[in-house]
Structure formats: C-alpha cells, structure tokens
Task: structure prediction
Amino acid sequence: MPHLLLVDDDEDILSLLTTFFQKHAHTVSSAKDGEGMFAALKEQAIDLVILDVMLQGEDGFSLCRRLREVSRVPVIMLTAMADHTDRVVGLEIGADDYLTKPFDQRELLARVKAVLRRTIEMSVSQTSSETRPTLCFAGWRLDVARRELRSQDNALVLLSGSEFDLLLAFAEHPQHVLTRDQLLDFAHGLSHTAFDRSIDVQVSRLRRKLEDDSKNPSVIRTVRNGGYIFTPKVTRG
Result:
C-alpha cells in the first residue's frame, strides 16, 4: 500500500482526503505544517507528499524547496491560485506535479497513481541499469545506476527525478535536436499534464545547475522552432 503524507492546515481537507485515499488502498499520514512534515518523513517511509501551498507560517513553496535539498520523495502541490506563475514556481523548485483547488478527488488520485508509477519505473530502471556506464560531458559525470550527477570536483548535485530523467535523455542523444514531444517521451519522469510548457521549466532548472551563465547557455541550447540540443560530446566511462 503506498504511503502518502498530506500536509495541509485545513482539518476538513485532511479528514476528507485521508478517508478518500484510505478507501483506495493507501496508507495516509498527515501534518499541519513544515515541522510536522519533516518529522513524519524522518519517522516513516513516505512514498509521496501532497503539499498545500497556502499554509500558515512557512508556505508550501519554501517547504518544497527545503525538502528538495535533502530528499527526492515525489511531491504534488495543491494551491487555490490558478495563476500559471505559481505553477512555474512549483515546478522550478522541484515539485513533480501541481493541482489547483477546487479539484476532483478522482483527478488527484489519478495524479498520485501516475507519479507513483513513474517512481516505480525509475526504481526498476535503476535496478536494471546497474551495468550501464557513467556518462561524462563537459566535466560532469552522470552515474546512471546511482542516478547521481557529480561535478568535476566530485561534488554531488541533487536532482529531482524528473530533472535526472531529462538530463539522461539529453546525454543519451547528444548533438541532436530534440523536440519537446520527444523529450517528454524520452524522459518518462516528466508530467504531460502538470504544465503545458513543463519541458521549458525543467530545462531552465537544469541550466542553472549545469552552467555558470544560464542566460547564455552553452550546454543545452534552444533551437528556434525546433526544441533543444545538448551540445557537449558524451563519453561512457
């Protein structure tokens, strides 16, 4: 049974979603704030976090940003704001999906299942790829089996699951123009539904981690009316 952690300061929503997910064969824990969220993550094996943006005190964006510094646990964010800017912010700080209130509980369940399915697929892929080589490019090393990115000085760069999948898609198809649709197909961790331009958001996040000047990118270049091209030569270690 997947174990979900609901983070919301609205008792009614917590009660409603807890009952709903338990009826659909999920184990559910809950927290009202960041302190409770991190305590639950430390004490229990959580498979996915459903995190409300509009929390009293530290908001969901800040909590997701802090969580991404220490964990890759999948996160679906909930918000009462329909502004696309909020969606972009949520994706940029590492959320795996984003849903606007009010929402149909069945849609949230479908989103949860989709994110968990991608997580399982990535885990299986990691297990089956233990013999796959490390991909090296522009001083970076991408360890496929461990799903780790390391810099030239061996510093670990934390990537979300979707960021890793996107970077792997680029590294496995270097010096070829890839359309957004192709990248969505190659990088199974990316959501087709989270945001229409989710690829652009993910590429922007990767650029900030890979390049000193993300405004003048040299590793991942935009091809007008085409998509993106990963420019470095890639070697297999």
Q: What stands out?
A: Residues 105-128 form the longest helix (24 residues).
